[in-house]
Write a structure and sequence with these properties.
With 125 residues, the chain is mainly alpha-helical. It has a domain at 48-99. Helix content is 56%, strand content 0%. The protein contains 5 helices and no strands. It has helices at 2-26, 52-56, 69-97, 105-109, 119-124. The longest helix is centred in the middle third of the chain and has 29 residues, at 69-97. The radius of gyration is 35 Å and the shape is rod-shaped. The model has no long low-confidence stretch (mean pLDDT 75). Residues 94-107 have a biased composition (Basic and acidic residues).
């Protein structure tokens, strides 16, 4: 019976030491302090819209208990691709809405200038 008690006490001591060691190495579960609002570790342009290359160029700093770099890099690549697709779609829609001005005089000859009589008015006269 004494051997069983010593065994249980030994298991509890080893378990306690493992718990203490992991708490020291991994922290006690406290949250990270809030980020400073006036300082950012990454820079994005303020004077123009963010494009895909801006996202690809981001360098996020890693901490001891930070993040998996491959997952964040993959996420940033996906975000940059979506930005590029969005910008291309917006440019396409703007071109459809406002086509570029025609500088070809042959195409302008078919439409009369304001105040100029068209072909029907000349025939009536």
């Amino acid at each position: 019976m004494l051997g069983f008690v010593v065994f249980v006490i030994g298991v509890l001591v080893v378990g306690g030491l493992l718990f203490l060691g992991s708490s020291v190495l991994l922290g006690r579960g406290e949250t990270q302090p809030p980020a400073e609002l006036d300082r950012s570790p990454v820079e994005l342009p303020d004077d123009r819209p963010v494009i895909g290359d801006d996202v690809r160029a981001l360098q996020i700093s890693a901490a001891f208990r930070g993040y998996r770099m491959t997952e964040v890099d993959w996420l940033l690549d996906q975000f940059a691709q979506i930005l590029d697709e969005r910008d291309a779609e917006i440019a396409d829609l703007r071109d459809r809405l406002h086509p570029p001005a025609v500088d070809d005089p042959k195409e302008q000859a078919g439409t009369p200038e304001p105040g100029q009589p068209d072909g029907e008015e000349e025939q009536r006269a």
